[in-house]
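Supplementary Note 2. Why include the ligand at all?

Several targets in our set were suspected to adopt different conformations when bound, so apo predictions alone were not considered sufficient. For every target with a known small-molecule partner we therefore ran a joint prediction. The input for manganese (II) ion is given below.
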Amino acid sequence: MINQYPFTLMPLPYKQDALSPHLNPATVEVHYCKLHQAYVDKLNQTLSPYPAYHNWSLEKLIIHTRALPAEIRTPVARYAGGVYNHNLYWQNICPKGKPLHDGTFSKALNYYFGSFCAFQTLLIETALGTFGSGWAWLMCDNNGRLQVLSTPNQDTPLAQLNTPLLVVDIWEHSYFLQYQEKRKDYLENWWSLVNWPKVDAYYQYCRRTKERTRF
Ligand code: MN
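The joint prediction is reproduced in C-alpha cell form.
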C-alpha cells in the first residue's frame, strides 16, 4: 500500500465477520467499508487540487499540517487523522485477541500504571469520561513515557510527535449498532480483541527510534 496521495483504504488483516461476537459484521461493515472509506475519499478530494502535497505521507500530513495552505489545514487534519486513527484501530485488534507476554512492554505498563489491571481501568475510565466523539489512547510520549489520554474528534497524539500504541474508537458509530448506548459493554468486549503482541511491537519500535534520536 503506497502511503501517499491517492490514499487507499487499508486492507483489513482479517475477515469482516471474524471479530464476532465482540464486534458484529454489520458494525464492522459500516465502520470500515463506509466510514473509514469516507475519510480516505475526503482526504483525497481535499488534496486533489494541491499536487505539491501529493508525495506527503499520512504521517507527514498530520505532523506538518501547519505547513499546508490555510484553507486545507482543518479538513486535512480531520481526514488524515480519521484515516490514521482507524488504520491503527483495526490493526490493534484481531479475531479472539492475542495475549500480552512478559517483557519490557509489560514491565513498562506495570511501572507507569501500577499493574496491567490498573492500566485497563484507567483506559476504560478515560474512554467513558470522554464527552462526545473521540478516541482513547495508550501512547509513548517524547520522553519514552507511557500515558493514557483521550482526544476529541479525529485528533491524534501523533500531531505532537507522540507515538500511539493502542487506540479505541469511542465515536458512537463504532458500537451503536450492536451495543446501542452501552459504551462500557463495548469497551469491555473490545479488550477481548486486542492483539497485544502487535501493541508490544509498536512499543519496541518506539523505544528503538527514541533511543536513536536521543544520540
Ligand atoms: Mn470510527
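The two ends are 32 Å apart (CA to CA). The mean pLDDT is 95. Comparable summaries for the other entries are listed in the accompanying table.
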